[in-house]
Design brief:
heterodimer, A: 444 residues, alpha/beta, Rossmann fold, 3 domains, 5-stranded parallel sheet, 12 helices, 16 strands, 36% helix, B: 176 residues, mainly beta, Dna Ligase, domain 1, OB fold (Dihydrolipoamide Acetyltransferase, E2P), 2 domains, 5-stranded antiparallel sheet, 5-stranded mixed β-barrel, DNA-directed RNA polymerase II subunit RPB7 (chain B), DNA-directed RNA polymerase (chain B), transcription (chain B), NA-bd_OB-fold (chain B), single-stranded DNA binding (chain B)
Chain lengths: 444, 176
């Protein structure tokens, strides 16, 4: 009881070491009253017998001393722990470090890793820092992937158009998902088509990145899709984030990703989901395999499924993006000798991006006002120079109509006259597209 | 720790079960109701082992349901602070690892893993000592000490540590 009270008091004192020494002396003295100094004054005659006796007593003292010391130490440790423990996180409302029950929910939830797990900001940044070092040591970066329209396309069975119903007979077996690409998920009333090249894409990307899935779908859907993409659980093990795990509604954020923002690449088809992390984003051309998906985005054209067509396996969007990833990865790790930790993948990404349309001088002609600023920004990010007045240095005139003054000028001066889609395509594929595919037809 | 204790419960039974098999019905319903549940006081009910006594039923007005007070013996499992448990690792990540001992979910954070063990990422994430002699990965069996417990209606959460003498891996699946 005495010890307890001392320990309870100890936090009050600012410097506890002196107190502790006094306390220790006191305790040790109290526990070994037999070894008092007057024993030293025994006469020489009795030395022999006393020595034996002393030895006995000493050995008792020693054990007593060490046990009481042990108790003190333990108590001290406990008290220090209670004082020092910053409660870096919680699991089932208990501190993950000291086991103490914590009331009130604070920190960021990491439900996608394990139910009931929460971590505090400092702990997250500590984990990010330590992880960063080992990751860079393995020459890897982080990669956050979206599911729908990026890696695959899903539709409700009820939304299949009549021209698509033939697909029902062509679905692949769920017994070995690693071979197929079209799956019917009866219990979810859904059909899912994986984007061509996705398996090679993930395999290649996993060598360069630690990968996360981040989807706006709900958790059961996200896990089901992860199972289709990664049946062995080798890429996305406990790294599947769904909308239930995000911290903000209708937004995706890197706060739940345990990776430093300067080392994260994102692949998504929806730019506005990543308002805070646009610099990390690689925008993906949407994959619309099913008609319901086309309708959802307001396209009236036939779906790939209706046309019985699909993206190219070796030269589709994913294959093109993989080349960009390889380039970014290579640039990041091969850059001159500055410290790896100080490098920022966002800078690498923007420098790679700015070479796409490098050397192009663009002038816009009669582009719809609402679309102009974003188009101009896109072109500038891709490295093109945008002018407002006609100039001999202009290489491309971007217009939707061949009848404008600038369009005439382009034809006369033998400059490229292209549709705005030329810029958009370059933005998606990270490659200057052949201009002849984007020629504007004369209006009748 | 396991305990063999006597608990009591009021069982509501639908009139359709009245008849010759009333007792059997009552017992099977009891098992269905309580086995696998948790209570903060007693822990996880592993199995009903016997019926001590079934009291007189009370017919409820209006519904015809009958309430029987049932005293039953059962085996319960409850982890305690300071208890040493053996558990199977279910997940390893940079924050630490999760392990299971029956219904109990235990988290051992990397603060409570010995400092000489380092996290190794990859398709089989693990914690390994610098000389590679000890490895904790999924399906490893570990001996750990409980430093905190919380019992919910259906789950028991524990915080564990292996930063102490004689704790850690007891059976490594990789070497078997």
């Amino acid at each position: 009881m005495k010890q307890m009270s001392v320990v309870a008091d100890s936090p009050v004192h600012s410097s506890s070491s002196d107190d502790f020494v006094a306390f220790l002396d006191n305790e040790l003295g109290a526990s070994s009253p037999d070894s008092s100094p007057d024993k030293e004054a025994e006469s020489q005659d009795e030395l022999e017998s006393v020595r034996i006796k002393r030895r006995k007593i000493e050995s008792i003292d020693e054990t007593e001393g060490s046990t009481s010391e042990g108790i003190i130490k333990q108590n001290l440790e406990a008290s220090v722990e209670v004082d020092v423990c910053t409660h870096p996180g919680s699991f089932g409302s208990m501190c993950i470090r000291c086991g103490q029950k914590l009331d009130g929910e604070s920190g960021v939830t990491f439900g996608y890793i394990h139910k009931g797990l929460r971590l505090h900001e400092e702990e997250i940044s500590r984990l990010r820092n330590t992880d960063m070092k080992s990751l860079l040591g393995h020459k890897k970066l982080y990669f956050v992937l979206d599911l729908d329209h990026t890696l695959l396309n899903s539709t409700l069975l009820a939304h299949l158009s009549s021209e698509e119903s033939y697909l029902l007979n062509q679905t692949d077996s769920l017994a070995d998902v690693s071979k197929g690409s079209l799956f019917k998920l009866e219990h979810m009333h859904m059909m899912t088509k994986l984007r061509p090249f996705v398996r090679s894409f993930l395999k290649e990307a996993s060598k360069m990145f630690e990968m996360y899935i981040y989807t706006m779908g709900d958790r059961p859907y996200a896990l089901e899709m992860a199972k289709l993409l990664d049946p062995q659980g080798e890429y996305f093990n406990a790294k599947v984030i769904s909308r239930d795990d995000g911290t903000q509604k209708h937004q995706k954020g890197l706060d739940v990703v345990l990776g430093q923002e300067s080392a994260v690449l994102i692949l998504d088809d929806t730019e506005h989901a990543w308002m805070k992390h646009k610099d990390n984003l690689i925008l993906m051309e949407r994959y619309h395999f099913f008609a319901s998906s086309c309708r959802q985005f307001g396209f009236n054209c036939k779906s790939l499924a209706e046309l019985r067509n699909d993206e190219d396996e070796t030269d589709g969007a994913l294959a093109k993006i993989l080349r960009v990833l390889k380039q970014v990865h290579c640039t990041f790790f091969n850059k001159h000798q500055d410290d790896l930790v100080d490098r920022d993948v966002r800078q690498v990404l923007s420098s790679v991006r700015s070479k796409v349309l490098g050397g192009c001088v663009i002038i816009f002609s009669r582009i719809f006002h609402g679309a102009l600023p974003s188009l101009r920004k896109m072109a500038e990010q891709l490295g093109a120079t945008c002018l407002t007045e006609v100039d001999p240095s202009v290489t491309h005139v971007v217009a939707t109509d061949a009848g404008t003054e600038k369009s005439w000028w382009a034809v006369k001066e033998n400059k490229f006259l292209v549709h705005p889609r030329w810029i958009e395509a370059a933005n998606y594929f990270w490659e200057k597209q052949p201009e002849e595919n984007f020629i504007i037809k004369k209006k009748q | 720790m396991f305990f063999h204790i006597v608990l009591e419960r009021n069982m509501q039974l639908h009139p359709r079960y009245f008849g010759r098999n009333l007792r059997d019905n009552l017992v099977s319903k009891l098992m269905k109701d309580v086995e696998g549940t948790c209570s903060g006081r007693h822990g996880f009910v592993v199995a009903v082992t016997g019926i001590e006594n079934i009291g007189k039923g009370l017919i409820r007005d209006g519904t015809g349901f009958v309430t029987f007070p049932v005293k039953y013996q059962c085996v319960v499992f409850r982890p305690f602070k300071g208890e040493i448990l053996e558990a199977v690792v279910t997940m390893v990540n940079k924050m630490g690892f999760f392990a299971e001992a029956g219904p109990v979910q235990i988290f051992v954070s990397n603060h409570l893993i010995p400092d000489d063990m380092e996290f190794q990422s990859g398709d089989m994430p693990n914690y390994t000592t610098s000389d590679g002699s000890v490895k904790i990965q999924k399906d490893s069996e570990v001996r750990l000490k409980i430093i905190g417990t919380r019992v919910d209606a259906t789950e028991i959460f524990c915080i564990g540590t292996i930063k102490d003498d004689f704790l850690g891996v007891i059976n490594d699946p990789a070497t078997v």
